[in-house]
Amino acid sequence: MNSIRAFIALDLSPASRHAIAKVIRRLEPRFPGIKWINAEQLHLTLHFLGDVLFSDINRVCSVAQEAAEEIPPFSIHLKGLGAFPDTKSPRVIWVGVEQGHLPLVELQSALKGPLGEMGYPSDKNVFKPHITVGRVKRSGDLMDLQEQVAKYESSDFGVTAIDELTVYESQLNRGGPDYSVISEIELG
């Protein structure tokens, strides 16, 4: 194998991870058909790269470095639970970003063009900043899920200071993915 599965993301503060994990712990027993994300793996994906050739890894990190240099540190406010595409046919359960959209979009945009030119296009047409907290494998009781998402749609998950981005390797295993840091890059 001459490639690794990789993505570029922003890490969350321990307080935000803890707040999100509390909600996940409440929902997990009710919805066994959802694969919930472990608290230590919660992040905001800026660009999913997929399989990256070993020969491209240094250039990917350079692109990330160039993008990070253009954006000064900022904060994001995490608030509310939701679902993609919607709660009637959910596939992903997420926590939203209430404040901090502009620098997130600028950072993602600075990555999207150069990485796309390298052959690693963004998997999103329109970037919608969010933290994936669960992936729906079996839908189960949709009415109950809709009620629970609505119950937490105004929940405050705190503020996270963003001062670096991380290039991660993702190894898929039976129990879920394992993430390893390839590079941590300071903003500004």
In short:
With 188 residues, this protein is α+β, with helices and mostly antiparallel strands. Helix content is 29%, strand content 41%. Helix 2 packs antiparallel against helix 3.
What is the average per-residue confidence, as pLDDT, rounded to a whole number?
95
Oligomeric state of the chains in view? single chain
Helix content range: 25-40%
Structural class: alpha+beta
Distance between the termini: 35 Å
Query: What is the highest CATH level, the class?
Result: Alpha Beta
Query: How is the CATH topology named?
Result: Cyclic Phosphodiesterase, Chain: A
Order of helices and strands: EHEEHEEHEHEEE
Portion of residues in beta strands equals 35-45%
What is the count of β-strands? 9
From the alpha carbons, calculate the radius of gyration and give it in angstroms: 17 Å
Strand count, sense and closure of the main sheet? 5 strands, antiparallel
In the CATH hierarchy, the architecture is Alpha-Beta Complex
> What sort of overall outline do the alpha carbons produce when their principal axes are compared?
globular
Number of domains: 1
State the CATH superfamily name. Cyclic phosphodiesterase
Total count of helical runs of at least 4 residues: 4
Instruction: Give the strand line-up of the largest sheet.
Output: 2-6-5-4-7
- Uncertain runs are none
Describe the 3D structure.
The chain has 188 residues and is α+β, with helices and mostly antiparallel strands. Helices cover 29% and strands 41% of the residues. The chain has four helices and nine strands; from the N terminus they run βαββαββαβαβββ. Strands 2-6-5-4-7 form a five-stranded antiparallel sheet, sandwiched between helices. The chain is globular, with a radius of gyration of 17 Å. The protein starts with a strand and ends with a strand.
